[in-house]
Amino acid sequence: DSHSGQFSVWARIRELYMLLDITYPSDRLPALSGLAKQMQGIGAGTYLAGLWLDNLLCDLFWMTDYGEREIKWQAPSWSCMGFKSGVRISSVVSTANKRFNTSKLRPTDLKNTNIEISKFRTSIIGFDCQPAGKDLTGHVKPHASLTLSAPCIAISGFKVKNQSVYACKNGTTLEFKDDCSADFSGDNNQT
After folding, report:
1. Exposed/middle/buried for 177, CB within 10 Å: 0-12, 13-18, 19+?
2. How far is CA 143 from CA 96, 98, 102, 139, in A?
3. Per-residue pLDDT tens digits for 118-135
């Protein structure tokens, strides 16, 4: 469908955009605002700090091999827009055994990928991502939130090392990096 194509294009725009060296981090979301409005004009729907509600479960499949969050809060932890400029953001999610290109992954298109998304059984319960001003696709207010419902899985083991948590299930190891602790500390330089 046409939404699938436009969301794939947006994922690529987002990846290329994050490689740019933007002088002022606070310009990141406003600079994308014009493109976001164009996407809304062709039916992309609700914009959430660089991601799209109609494609959110797939848009959340982003990763970076390196990078730091901005010192002053710029975007929610679930959006890549909070990273410093020049960071490679990818729609390819890797495990120890497989690589998945999620830029073409759509909740309604299970045949387009090796991932069986129906096994995730994840749904969006709610979100709060309010604009910080009149521009609905620009800055967002701090404390944006996203609530998901997903099944818990049993893991065979985990370890914590260098601000990462490694979880193992059936021989596959996943790494989760702590890159958003400031979002939970209560003092995330939001002034």
Report:
1. middle
2. 33, 34, 27, 12
3. 455 678 899 999 999 999
Q: Radius of gyration over alpha carbons of the chain, in Å?
A: 17
> Average per-residue pLDDT in the chain?
75
Q: Other CB atoms closer than 10 Å to residue 146's CB: what's the count?
A: 19
Note whether 159 and 179 are within 8 A (CB).
no
Is pLDDT at 92 greater than 60 in this prediction?
no
In this structure, are residues 83 and 70 in contact, taking their beta carbons and an 8 Å threshold? yes
pLDDT at 187: 45
Is the backbone of residue 96 left (phi > 0), alpha (psi -120 to 50) or beta? alpha
Q: At what angle do helices 28-41 and 2-19 cross, to 10 degrees?
A: 170
